[in-house]
Design a protein that fits this description.
The structure holds two protein chains of two kinds.
Chain A lengths: L24 H10 L2 H18 L1 H4 L31 H37 L1 H15 L3 H12 L3 H11 L2 H14 L3 H8 L4 H9 L4 H24 L11 H8 L8 H28 L7
Chain B lengths: L8 E14 L2 E14 L3 E5 L6 H9 L6 E9 L2 E2 L5 H7 L4 E4 L3 H4 L6 H13 L3 H14 L5 H4 L9 H13 L5 E5 L7 H18 L2 E6 L2 H7 L2 E6 L2 E7 H6 L4 H8 L52 E2 L6 E2 L4 H7 L1
Helix pairs in contact in B: 4-5, 4-7, 5-7, 7-8
The chains are: A mainly alpha, B alpha/beta.
Chain lengths: ~300, ~325
């Protein structure tokens, strides 16, 4: 069926038996990611944390409410690795279970924020005009509301639960990603393959999500990873201010808050959950940085 | 070379006027342009950058929202495309009128495989399912001369050479057997050696699916060998329109003559220097009075008709050969 075989330019020989291996973008990205030690350390830590969260029941020696009536506020020992809190609960077990709270809130709230941010940002960047002005004014309004005030308001109305925190962080966290996605879409809607898609009769929605979005994915992934760390930190801050989940939920921020009065005689109450927060946030940020460098080789060609 | 003249008229552009609003005023990029494209023919539009050839194509497809159409009609199989809504236009784009872009490097989406991009056309226009559309896409890639199409369909654009990418672009454009293929400088971004191949594929495909081609180019060499009919544009207006033989051998507009003289001739004597057209194309905002070409025209009568009166299209023969020059008859004689 070939039309003009004699005119074909030379192309690398492909016989029927040769295996054509698509050079995958993600393979390259993965290779560059692995070359970044900090990012790999962050990834290993997050994977460990996820495993801890999944197998918390097997790892934690006690439950989150179980009290040791002989030990109140004692420091680390062989029975209680991270010590016990003021009412005799095992801090290690609570920190282990706390990983579930932090990861759940961090990941789910970031997902919500990403979905809102990507949808609105895509719409604003692609459509332009009034749609864009409207959406950007909404972001301005949200930017002017401090999320902690909003969190206190929502927590007062709907009660202090993990879900409240997720919703608060979700509806306040989409501003940054919205701006990033808008900028990418504004730029990408001008490129020729988008114009070609339009010339070949593709629908606007299809162009937005099938043709532009995959090309705008890299900053979204990087930002999203770092945002998970940010959300975990924000959750800790809200818990610390007593507008997050309530006792006995083993939220790390709440544990720090409850232990802060005993900083002088029982520093382990603040130290262990505090370290858990810091390491987790740091890991997500390091992964995000590593992804940024891996996805954009031009940025850092050493 | 008058193939198609007797066949069905697909596209009929009548007195089209279109332009842009800029900070410095309205730019009339297309000014009173009329032409017909018949099934089966290759219709070429030739002109320098800014002569309005690409804007004409974009207006036909209704692609650039910034283009303001001031008047005229674009009749596609009898329906005026300018009156159609967005939804109806979308069904015409790609399915009935398809477009091949200049630079296949940037006109293919880097994140999707070639096969998927070609197949997508079948899914959105002909309602094929994933498997059927991929089968047809592979057949199309095969048709445009991509060897081992089945395997190459799984590759991404960056794994293709420039010529192969342009073939893939063509495969995409013909996926739904359109009646008209608009090719906007399809070979400009390619190596000279590959240009001929791609054009050959284009013309063979046209015959196979019985469509027409509207070829936009500034390369007269490309035009001469392929076209049935040629329209020369200058400053948004038609300078000359006729069959390829008429335009090349009985040129009746000084601009066409100037273009022909500035092409190197392989067979002519070496000593004969190329004659460039002096000056540069006029600004479309501050048009010269009268004939837009008169400041650069060697035959212009200034002061006189040339700088005061915009020339009408002069009919040069019964076949539809027209030229917009006050002295068209004299120009033809001088060739």
């Amino acid at each position: 069926m070939t039309l003009v075989p004699e005119l074909l330019e030379p192309m690398p020989e492909i016989g029927p038996d040769t295996e054509v291996r698509a050079v995958s973008l993600w393979g390259d990205v993965w290779k560059r990611f692995l070359a970044n030690k900090l990012a790999v350390i962050g990834l290993v830590f997050v994977i460990l944390l996820i495993l801890v969260a999944i197998f918390a029941d097997l790892i934690a020696p006690y439950s989150i409410t179980e009290r040791d009536s002989a030990n109140f506020r004692t420091g680390p020992s062989s029975d209680h690795w991270f010590g016990t809190d003021i009412i005799g609960r095992d801090v290690f077990s609570r920190v282990v279970y706390g990983s579930r709270v932090s990861l759940k809130i961090g990941i789910v709230s970031t997902l919500i924020a990403m979905i809102i941010g990507v949808l609105l940002g895509a719409l604003a960047g692609f459509r332009g005009g009034w749609t864009e002005s409207g959406i950007m004014r909404i972001t301005d309004i949200f930017l002017s509301v401090p999320y902690i005030v909003l969190a206190i308001a929502i927590a007062t109305v709907f009660g202090r639960t993990e879900n409240t925190v997720i919703i608060v962080l979700g509806v306040t966290g989409w501003l940054g990603i919205c701006r990033i996605v808008r900028a990418s879409f504004m730029q990408l809607k001008q490129v020729e393959y988008v114009e070609a898609a339009r010339a070949l009769g593709f629908k606007g929605r299809r162009i937005m999500f099938r043709h532009i979005l995959p090309n705008a994915l890299q900053p979204i992934i990087v930002y999203g990873t770092i945002a998970i760390g940010g959300a975990i930190l924000a959750e800790a801050a809200l818990s610390f201010l007593q507008v997050g989940p309530q006792d006995p939920t083993p939220a790390w921020g709440l544990m720090v808050s409850q232990g802060k009065g005993d900083l002088a005689n029982a520093p382990h109450l603040v130290f262990f959950p505090g370290v858990a927060i810091s390491l987790t946030v740091l890991s997500f940020v390091m992964i995000g940085d590593g992804l940024r460098d891996a996805l954009d080789p031009k940025l850092k060609s050493r | 070379m008058t193939a198609g003249r007797d066949k069905e008229i697909l596209l009929s552009v009548r007195n089209l006027e279109a332009g842009f609003d800029t900070g410095e005023g309205h730019v009339r990029a297309v000014d009173n342009v009329s032409f017909d494209i018949h099934r089966g023919e290759v219709f070429s539009i030739v002109g320098e950058s800014g002569s309005g050839k690409s804007v004409t194509a974009m207006t036909i497809l209704g692609l650039l929202p910034t283009i303001k159409v001031a008047g005229g009609e674009i009749l596609w199989k009898g329906r005026d495309l300018l009156q159609l809504g967005d939804r109806e236009m979308r069904h015409i784009r790609g399915a009935e009128i398809s477009m091949i872009f200049q630079d296949p490097l940037t006109a293919l989406n880097p994140v999707h495989t070639i096969g998927r991009q070609v197949a997508e056309m079948g899914r959105i226009h002909d309602g094929l399912n994933k498997k059927e559309s991929m089968e047809r896409a592979i057949a199309m890639l095969d048709l445009v001369g991509i060897p081992e199409a089945r395997k190459r369909a799984d590759m991404h654009p960056h794994e293709f050479s420039g010529g192969m990418r342009q073939r893939a672009m063509i495969a995409m454009a013909i996926m739904c057997s359109p009646d008209l293929l608009i090719a906007d400088e399809p070979t400009t971004a390619l190596d000279v050696t590959v240009q001929a191949q791609v054009l050959e594929v284009l013309v063979e495909i046209k015959d196979r699916i019985d469509s027409a081609i509207m070829l936009i180019t500034h390369d007269l060499g490309v035009v001469a060998g392929l076209s049935d009919n040629v329209m020369v544009m200058y400053a948004g207006r038609q300078a000359e329109l006729g069959t390829s033989d008429e335009v090349f051998y009985e040129s009746s507009h000084p601009y066409t003559l100037g273009l022909l003289k500035s092409i190197p001739d392989l067979e002519g004597p070496f000593s004969e220097p190329l004659v460039p057209i002096p000056g540069s194309p006029p600004s479309l905002i501050n048009r010269p009075s009268g004939c837009p070409f008169h400041p650069r025209c060697p035959m212009a009568e200034v002061p006189g008709r040339c700088d005061s009166e915009i020339p009408e299209l002069h009919s040069m023969g019964p076949s539809g050969h027209v030229a917009s020059c006050h002295f068209a008859e004299q120009v033809r004689v001088s060739t």
